[in-house]
Design goal:
The protein is mostly beta strands. About 5% of the residues lie in helices and about 40% in strands. The protein has 7 helices and 53 strands. The strands form 13 sheets. Strands 2-3-5-14-7-8-9-10 form an 8-stranded antiparallel β-sheet, with no helix packed on it. About 45% of the residues are buried.
Length: about 900
């Protein structure tokens, strides 16, 4: 059962004065009892307590009738309103028109303190330069201007606001005795934190009063505020500090009570609170802490330890706001720990192998149950296709795709818990081995622009036949892949596409970051409060991609502030991908700067190993790219230079102030820097300075055989000219180990296309893949893929198992179709568009095992290769 208690304490639009505030600070709400209240000052112009339950009107409690209007979606929370980043409140025009002094007090709990946004604005437009009085909450600072940002008079607090905590934020302005200047003051929790006593802009200098907002900026491009707001008051005088302290105390009591009243534990959890088996989500926003009785079953962070018998647990949520508390209880029932057999079965049920019906790559086979820590062991019906044993250096789950056609393999997993076992069969369809044709062309994935719009930080594709001339597949503003606002950080940068070793699956990994939505680099806090996720897309053809997946790779790093610029490379020796990226982790560095490169391993870009610090420099290091040539790995990184190193051991850890100049082939040792190799000099704008002050985001790629000319090998290295805002600058080398200018050059004949290319990656592709990308994204050429639909059924005919295959030509082109089975092959010539052909294949056996057939089709300039699976059939 679920039980809730403690009613909402409602405010009455009055404020507590003098000694009463000390009483409120002395104990919890339950201990206060009746208190004396004093009337609001006569200077009160408008007051909103956001206690509405519905509608779009924020009612003014001052008695002046200055109601506000909710714009962009109401989000009432039973005593406060949630500003979601999509809504705001429009206040009446002329609220402070003609005034020379004012106080604005807001009680708020921010949820996203980053980017360019205002807490409130009084006055006019930033673009129209018609003057503003506002608080910018990120710094935080209070400012006033007759025009716009260029004329601001402001003062910034050294005390920051905190996310998820109720705070009273007040600003006052009043003319000084000289009659020409004003004093600005900023208060947090009733305490003055900043003052500017000589503002040359006065409140009555503002002539326009039509853009009065809570949660919205005077600038159209800025983000809307995100956070909860419990009260908002406007006065026509600069209230003294004692009054602001009293208001802060009153609002603390109300905010604590409203926070508790708004808690909905059932909505925060997906499991039934009357049948709790797994950890609970216990909301903590607004200063909420949790306790429980009896102890030892539900921890304060929601971790659940199932008892020996079903137990009702009373959870107590307590909101504390500046010493004022309010509480609410919830009753949940935690079910007894399951018997060992049940625990084992539940661990089995929780196993999900991605793409079980479309296995193309090695599998990650868990060995410990995700719910009850059962020991998991595996067996395979076809160990030659799916190996579950592994070796000393290679984990189990190695897939060897069959040459003859798709194969059905059954993995049996056994879960053991306290001596009791349970088993589960997991059927797999392992695809026929894929032979990658020679690569002749290139795909360039990148982002673009200068963070001037939401579409700059998204994924764009360009293609090339020769790595000299590139063609953009989409126009600016029309990315091929994107994150929507509210999805991750709302933007994606630094894309890198890696092809699986089998050749027919692709992973696109990228940085989850939008500097645009964060308000520009100056206030983004991107390295401190940035996403710890990578964005992952998957595809088997480069045009049909999965939905983006946000995969946490950096939370296991102490004090991690972001995960940037990921890349990956396949390692044949261990049969897994090494994934590497940059993370700022203050206090987790052995040398100077906190931005280091971390390394993890994965097979499926879903399950990652615990990251290790791979490169630690005295200065920051970022944007590492790796390429393998023979037995050697080469990497280039941005560490103040574009530094190139090499090693035969990919995962060798480097901790040194700068790149090591000597070492064994099992260590990473300096080859050189772009600046030293090419004798760079001058300014960034001149284009010949190749240091990290001008270049970032290095990217290696290998040229295709038909584009190397007389060179036996040819490699490209791109670097983003961020210092001059010019996008990528290309270089070439015939020998990555060389530091000679005879082997290295700047590629002056490369045309990268119309769009500015920023940190991305180039991958060689086949002619068919090029044709497919150009057709689907650029609308150029013909579709190289035929639309073919195949089905197959196993039947008993005269006591013998028989296959019946049907193939539909769902394309607009006539095609030749071949069906191949273990019991025969049939070719249909000239199958018209829309036509279905069928064929029976007799096994001449009383039974047949489960299997699959292959279907191939060809037309002018197009082809199809696929198949269909069938179940086992016994006709005895």
């Amino acid at each position: 059962m679920v039980r809730e208690g403690t009613p909402l304490l409602r405010r009455t639009g009055r404020w507590v004065a003098g000694a009463t505030s000390a009483l409120l600070a002395a104990g919890s709400l339950a201990m206060i009892g009746p208190v004396a209240v004093a009337a609001e000052p006569a200077s009160l112009l408008a007051s909103y307590d956001f206690s509405e339950a519905s509608g779009t009107v924020a009612h003014d409690l001052s008695g002046s009738g200055r109601d506000g209007a909710v714009v962009g979606g109401e989000a009432w929370r039973g005593g406060f309103m949630r500003f979601t980043g999509s809504n705001h409140v429009k206040l009446p025009d002329g609220l402070l028109a003609g005034r020379s002094a004012a106080t604005i007090v807001i009680e708020t709990s921010p949820t996203a303190l980053s980017g360019a946004k205002f807490l409130w604005n009084i006055g006019g437009s930033g673009e129209g330069a018609t003057g503003q009085f506002f608080i910018q909450p990120i710094a935080p600072r209070v400012a006033i201007s007759k025009t716009n940002w260029s004329g601001e008079q402001s003062v910034t607090s050294a005390t920051k606001l905190a996310e998820g905590k109720w705070q009273s934020v007040a600003a006052t302005i009043a003319k000084n005795a000289d009659g020409t200047t004003s004093t600005l003051r900023l208060f947090i929790d009733g305490v003055q934190v900043a003052e500017k006593a000589n503002s040359t802009v006065n409140l009555n200098d503002l002539a326009t009063h039509t853009m009065n907002f809570i949660g919205k900026s005077a600038y159209a491009a800025d983000s809307l505020y995100q956070g909860d707001v419990s009260s908002f008051r406007v006065y026509s005088e600069a209230l003294p500090a004692a009054d602001l302290a009293a208001i802060a105390a009153t609002d603390a009591t109300a905010a604590a009570s409203e926070t508790i009243a708004s808690l909905d534990l059932a909505a925060a959890n997906t499991q039934d609170l009357a049948e709790v088996e797994t950890d609970l989500v216990l909301p903590t926003a607004g200063g909420v802490t949790w306790s429980s009785a009896p102890a030892g079953i539900v921890a304060a962070d929601g971790e659940v330890v199932q008892p020996a018998s079903d137990t009702e647990v009373t959870l107590t949520a307590t909101a504390t706001v500046r010493g004022q508390t309010a509480s609410k209880t919830f009753a949940v029932t935690v079910l007894r720990a399951p018997a060992p057999g049940d625990a084992a079965q539940r661990d089995l049920d929780a196993i999900a192998l991605p793409y079980a019906d479309d296995v193309r790559s090695d599998l990650t086979l868990p060995t410990i149950g995700s719910r009850y820590d059962s020991t998991l062991s595996w067996s395979s019906s076809e160990p030659g296709i799916v190996d579950v044993e592994g070796t000393d250096t290679v984990a189990p789950g190695i897939v060897t795709r069959p040459a003859g056609g798709d194969a059905r393999v059954v993995l049996t997993v056994t879960a053991s818990k306290d001596g009791v076992t349970a088993t589960r069969d997991i059927p797999l369809t392992v695809r026929k081995a894929f032979e990658l044709p020679e690569t002749t062309d290139y795909l360039f994935a990148h982002f673009t622009g200068t963070e001037g719009s939401a579409n700059d930080e998204q994924i764009y594709f360009a293609t090339s036949r020769d790595a000299v001339t590139f063609t953009d597949t989409r126009a600016n503003g029309n990315p091929v892949l994107a994150l929507a606002e509210g999805q991750g950080d709302g933007g994606v940068r630094d894309p890198f596409v890696v092809r699986s070793p089998e050749g027919d699956r692709f992973y696109l990994i990228a940085t989850d970051l939008s500097i645009y939505h964060r308000g520009g680099w100056g206030s983004s806090q991107a390295t401190e409060t940035g996403s710890k996720n990578l964005v992952v897309w998957e595809s088997t053809d480069l045009v049909n991609w999965t939905e983006p997946r946000l995969t946490d790779v950096a939370s296991g790093i102490p004090n991690a502030g972001m995960a940037w610029a990921p890349e990956a490379i396949w390692d044949d020796a261990t049969q897994q991908y090494f994934v590497y990226w940059a993370t700022r982790a203050d206090g987790n560095t052995e040398l100077g700067d906190s931005v280091d490169v971390y390394l993890s391993t994965t097979r499926d870009f879903r399950t990652f190993s615990t990251p290790v610090k791979w490169i630690d420099r005295q200065g920051s290091i970022i944007d590492t790219t790796v390429i393998k040539v023979g037995d050697w790995y080469y990497r280039a990184s941005g560490d103040g230079q574009i530094t190139i190193e090499r090693s035969k051991k990919l995962d060798a850890v480097t901790t040194s102030a700068t790149a090591k100049t000597t070492g064994t082939d099992q260590e990473w040792v300096l080859v050189g820097t772009l600046q030293s190799i090419l004798s760079g000099s001058g300014t960034c704008a001149g284009g010949n300075n190749y240091t990290g002050a001008c270049l970032e985001g290095p990217e290696f790629f290998a040229y295709n055989g038909d584009d190397r000319g007389a060179a036996q090998q040819l490699y490209g290295l791109l670097a983003d000219q961020y210092g001059a805002g010019k996008g990528y600058l290309p270089f070439r080398t015939t020998d990555l180990a060389s530091t000679s200018v005879s082997a290295w050059s700047k590629a002056t004949n490369v045309n990268l296309g119309t769009l500015k290319k920023r940190h991305g990656g180039i991958m060689p592709i086949t002619a068919q893949e090029y044709q497919r990308v150009m057709f689907h994204y650029a609308g150029v050429g013909t579709d190289p893929d035929l639309a073919i639909e195949a089905t197959v059924a196993s039947k008993c005919v005269a006591g013998k198992a028989t296959l019946v295959a049907s193939v539909k030509n769902a394309d607009t082109r006539t095609a030749d179709v071949t069906v191949a089975t273990s019991y025969g092959t049939k070719t249909f010539t000239g199958v018209p568009a829309g036509k279905t052909v069928s064929q029976a294949f007799a096994s001449r056996l009383a039974s047949m095992p489960a299997g699959s057939l292959g279907v191939t089709a060809t037309a002018t300039g197009a082809s199809f290769a696929g198949g269909a699976s069938y179940e086992a059939r016994s006709c005895g």
